Amino acid sequence: MRLAALLLVFSLAVLAFAADTPTAITTSNTSAVPVLRTAPAAVDKIWSAVVLATNPAVPKDPPGELREFAPRLKRVFGYSQFDLVGSAAEKIDDRTESWLVPSQSFWLTVKARRAVSKEARGGYLLNLELFQDKRPLLETEAKLAPGSPLFIRGPQYGNGQLIIVLQVQR
C-alpha cells in the first residue's frame, strides 16, 4: 500500500513537471485518480485597419481606435489627420489562413505562426497578402509582436494616402 501511494505521488510529480502550464492537480468526484488541469492558452487576435491620412488646413482629432497610433503615424508618414475607413479583428490560429476585411475594397489574408526568436517578444511570423478589390497589391512576410504595430503604406487616395495598420491584441 505504501509503495503504491509513493508511486502515485512520484508519477503526479513527473506529470506536473512535464506539463507546460499546470495550474492545479485535482480529483474528480467520480474517480479517485487525480486529473491534471492546465491553464487555457491566451487567445490573441490580429486587429487590422484601413486608415485615410490627409493634411487638411484644420486637422481633426483621430478616432479612439487610432489615438495610440496617431503620434507614430504623424512621424512616419508626415500627415496630420487620420480617419478610420474600416477595421476588423480575427483570432490568430497557427493552423489556418485568416481573412481580415477592414473595408469593402481592401482585405488581407494572413497565415500566422508563433515566432520563436527572442526579438519577436511573444509575437507572430505572418505571411500577408493585401488585396484591393480582386487585385493583389502586396505579398510579404513580417513579424508582428504585441505593442509593436505594423504600418503598410497603401495607394494614394484623393488628397491623401491609405495606410494599413496591423496589431496583435491580447
Fold and architecture overview:
There is one protein chain. With 170 residues, the chain is mainly beta. The protein has 2 domains: 2-38, no CATH class; 45-169, no CATH class. It is built from 2 helices and 10 strands. It has helices at 2-18, 70-77, and strands spanning 22-27, 34-38, 45-54, 81-91, 97-100, 106-114, 124-132, 135-144, 150-157, 160-169. It has a 4-stranded antiparallel sheet with strand order 4-3-10-9. It is globular. The chain starts with a helix and ends with a strand. The model is unreliable at 1-31 and 34-41 (pLDDT under 50).
Brief rundown of the structure:
With 170 residues, this protein is mainly beta. It has helices spanning 2-18, 70-77; strands at 22-27, 34-38, 45-54, 81-91, 97-100, 106-114, 124-132, 135-144, 150-157, 160-169.
Question: Regions with pLDDT < 50 over 5+ consecutive residues?
Answer: 1-31, 34-41
Helix content: 10-25%
According to DSSP, the number of beta strands is 10
Strand order of the largest sheet: 4-3-10-9
Please report the distance between the alpha carbons of the first and last residues: 48 Å
How many structural domains can be distinguished in the coordinates? 2
Order of helices and strands: HEEEHEEEEEEE
What value does the average pLDDT take? 75
Largest sheet: 4 strands, antiparallel
Query: Which word captures the global form?
Result: globular
Instruction: Please state the CA-atom Rg, rounded to the nearest Å.
Output: 23 Å
Helix tally?
2
